[in-house]
Amino acid sequence: MGVTIRTARLADRARILAISSQIWEGDDYVPQVIDEWLHMRDSEVVVAELNGTVISFAHTVNLASGYVWLEGIRTDTASQGHGAGKALTEYLIEKAWRDGAQRIGLSTYIDNLASIHIIEHYGFERQASFIFAEATLDSPARTCAELSPEVVAVPFGEAKSWILGSASIAMSCGFVGQGWKFWPASRPGVIAWPAFDKAIGLRGSNGSLRSLLVVCHPDHGEGEVSIDFADGSPKDLEVLVRHVLALYPGAKSIQTVVPAGKGIHTVLLETLTALEFDVWRHGVPDVFVYERPVKQPQ
Ligand SMILES: CC(C)(COP(=O)(O)OP(=O)(O)OC[C@H]1O[C@@H](n2cnc3c(N)ncnc32)[C@H](O)[C@@H]1OP(=O)(O)O)[C@@H](O)C(=O)NCCC(=O)NCCS
Prior knowledge:
The chain is α+β, with helices and mostly antiparallel strands. Helices cover 26% and strands 34% of the residues.
């Protein structure tokens, strides 16, 4: 019998964790989110079985009515190449269609070659690229932490309007990244925003906002902090990033993704490099967001 797909049950939790423990030397975020995934609304964990054993799983969640996000697809290393990843992807595309969604999005990393092969096979197109950077607890960047008296809290409504008019959101093709999840904040059709934890900025002498940085806690990884958005002059960005480093002294990782195009990126990258963040792959775009419209299955 071939691969079969079904909704995960609570009893699958241990098997899901066993599969996750094999991925990325056990440094997978799934254990931190699996309980929430198995219980949350507008969401489904699906598993693939081969000969009665769960060999693969994935998660789908509606970021907004009409916008589906796919994440966390993993196959037992001993069972890869048997079609489970493709079967799960196909099932989730069909489910999105049955649920009346308009678009499906997902993100992946540059060296997940099997994943990129599968999603491109199913018609997902790359929409945006980013450069991953982080400051872990032992990073020299953490010694740059400094609270600035010039930094002010920015109301979330004002922050959202400012983001929509920024150069950075144009470079990120309308997505706002929250960890590995990318929200379609300014995309054609369906709009969805992540929940902000803090928005801070610097104002000009007339009170207008001249730079902005937004932080949220990603839904994976306890103690991880994500800079979802940062734009402004290089001098302002340095003040804002140093301020954030000081606001979260105990965070295991303070991370962000810098919007990047072909050979260009936002000014944030220079700031992070100067502050000695760990910029993965020496600044080559390495995180990709893919999307596809939902059409009636053939
Ligand atoms: C991505 C993943 C879930 C795929 O699961 P799987 O059950 O092996 O997938 P399938 O067997 O359905 O298909 C694998 C496809 O990738 C292809 N593939 C495998 N390795 C590849 C590589 N290095 N480069 C390009 N394609 C590759 C296979 O040839 C196959 O395609 P084909 O059927 O057209 O020949 C699995 O590799 C995995 O768990 N990876 C680690 C976690 C991960 O990267 N998740 C996605 C990012 S969040």
